[in-house]
Specification:
The chain contains eleven helices and 21 strands. It is α+β, with helices and mostly antiparallel strands. A hairpin with a 2-residue loop joins strand 12 and strand 13. Helix 1 packs across helix 9 and helix 3 runs antiparallel to helix 4. 42% of the residues are buried.
Amino acid sequence: MPRLLLLLPTTTYRAAAFLGAARKLGAEAVVASERANVFQEAQPGRYLTLDFLRPDTAVRQVLEFAATRPLDAVVGVDDATTVLAATLSATLSLEHNSVAAAVAARDKYQMRKLLSRDGVPVPSHALRSLDDDDPIVEARRMVFPCVVKPLMLSASRGVIRADDEAQFVGAVRRLDRILQTSEVSVTGEAARQILIERFVPGREVALEGLLVKGELHVLALFDKPDPLDGPFFEETIYVTPSRLPATVQAEIASCTSRAAQALGLQDGPVHAELRVNRHGPWVIEVAARSIGGLCSRTLRFGTGLSLEELILRHALGMEVPTLERERRAAGVMMLPVPRAGVLKEVRGQAEALAVPGIDEVAITAHPGQDLVPLPEGASYPGFIFARAESPERVEAALREAHRRLAFVVMAPRRPGAAV
């Protein structure tokens, strides 16, 4: 039985999907998280506690573990684990992206430097230290509109558009406060540096792909029909297949492939975000991992293979029967946070599920949970999934289902108030 190490942060949405995929493949999954699992003492061979921010310590722990329980693959499922997965794989001589490539894909500034060097279209950009002089001085030299963003956070957290000097100063100071919060797991220089880039107008898309020995296989191209023009960049609807012309889709795939090569990515899943306008596609992000949240539930391959099964098959060197997505259109809506506060209940779930084409309404937030909108927030309160005969019907079903939901949100807790 093959054995694989899954790097699963305790905050990930994706544990159940990857563990289920491992069971279907007959593989033994060892779960590594940054916090101890309640079953760890009873099943020491199935769980590891690793410090994701200290790779040297994690490497020693995994080497000790693998000495008696050899590993056939290491898979990081979220942004926070991609570099560690590459480091562990290199130590264990397992197929994976190089550590340098994983680092470049994780750091937005390093990514843009490498892409620019190889002629891949990216927004003009600059690195700024939060310890530099007052941002008012820099604001006077800025070309607007621009976007201020952290180097390593995901899910659009901390990403803010500025259209003038006052907005720029406010955005920098707001991002500084976000990076200093205790729940932000960014350390070192990246915690005190930010990226400033020119805002690129256009339609945004997301490409899901798999790299096999450097060759990009496009698994799905998602349209994002809602405009993402700021001031914050909360993503909502993803629909596949894309409705863009075939020639534009081919340009997007080619641009993503060139970006992966420029970063040195060779193996495993790729999730790319691009903007498309009259000048063609522009790369916004290329991540060395698969699509986040519960969004992978939109994707089925062949006769029902999940994205997680496909990724694990590839990582373990198993045959992948097909990379062709099912023919029906599919989509997901990442439910936006209605307002800051404490969630009391969500009404209308049965009504939303009754909309033709809706597969599932998954509310992931629980009553009593604090809901925090972007740019401070980092999670969605739930997801809606749909399938239909056309992308248009999928989009319409998602919007109607969302219209039927009602989030009852109470006022935010006062600091120091009892939970």
